[in-house]
Specification:
The chain is of the alpha/beta class and 226 residues long. Helix content is 31%, strand content 28%. The two termini are 38 Å apart. Bound molecules: adenosine-5'-triphosphate (ATP) and zinc ion. It is found in: Cytoplasm. Residues 55-217 form the ATP phosphoribosyltransferase catalytic domain.
Length: 226
């Protein structure tokens, strides 16, 4: 059990697609911080709510270890972490608290343009390149399809052209990257967006009240954005 703390700590992406909108959303909840944005740690001024600026991939682990109380991260990253834990027989440690309405994308299976897509069974025995092995394995099991999973941490979309894989399972927003690589979306495994991730159970110390206040403000801001 992590030690009691009297400040809330929220992990957000340092740069990338979610960093700036995450910070802006928290600022619109009335938070402000002392450090400049290139620092790793931002000390909360208006409220005792601090930010940790990190790589998005590290956010679920920081939550799991109790280093941070909340995180703003893509559902895809949060669910991949949970799927990998579940695959290893480990219980969930955090959950999605709110969808945040930005960073929208899909985790799609994409196949070569020349394929006539007939459904998931077509993937039987094929090699699928992805950065999301946990989510892909879970989906394949649900579809009762056996396929090879080729784990790549980046440049997944060129794997078919390189002969590393037959198809890919990757994040898609506009689809331009797929087109550039002679691929087309075939089926969506997950709809994703940025989410507020947090603990399974409410905090039993002062962070509980802080968290409630933050969520009330967040809900007000999100309602206005709709
Ligand atoms: P980091 O340096 O923090 O590891 P990254 O390169 O892994 O950054 P980004 O490319 O900034 O991450 O993507 C962060 C999140 O943005 C993704 O996990 C996803 O939830 C969301 N996203 C929205 N659209 C896209 C897209 N077209 N491609 C990739 N991610 C997208
Ligand atoms: Zn990342």
């Amino acid at each position: 059990v992590p030690a009691a703390r009297d400040r809330l700590r929220i992990a957000i992406q340092k740069s990338g697609r979610l960093g700036e909108p995450a910070r802006a959303l928290l600022a619109s909840c009335g938070l402000s911080w002392r450090e400049s944005r290139d620092k790793l740690f931002c000390y909360g001024e208006t409220l005792p709510v601090d930010l940790l600026l990190v790589r998005d991939d590290d956010i679920p682990g920081l939550l799991a270890d109790g280093v941070c109380d909340y995180g703003i991260v893509g559902r895809n990253v949060l669910e991949e972490f949970a799927a990998e834990r579940a695959g290893g027989g480990k219980p969930a440690v955090s959950k999605e608290i709110r969808p945040l309405g930005f960073g929208g994308c899909r985790l799609d299976i994409a196949v070569p343009d020349a394929w006539e897509w007939e459904g998931p069974q077509q993937l039987q025995g094929k090699r699928i390149a992805t950065s999301y092995p946990g989510l892909l394995a879970k989906w394949l099991a649900e579809q009762q399809v056996e396929a090879g999973v080729v784990m790549l941490s980046g440049s997944v979309e060129i794997a078919p052209r390189l002969g590393q894989a037959d198809v890919i399972c990757d994040l898609v927003s506009s689809g331009a990257t797929l087109v550039a690589n002679q691929l087309k979306p075939a089926v969506t495994i997950m709809q994703s967006e940025a989410v507020l991730a947090g603990p399974l159970q409410p905090f039993s110390d002062i962070r509980g009240e802080l968290a409630q206040m933050l969520l009330r403000r967040l809900d007000g801001v999100l309602r206005l954005k709709d």
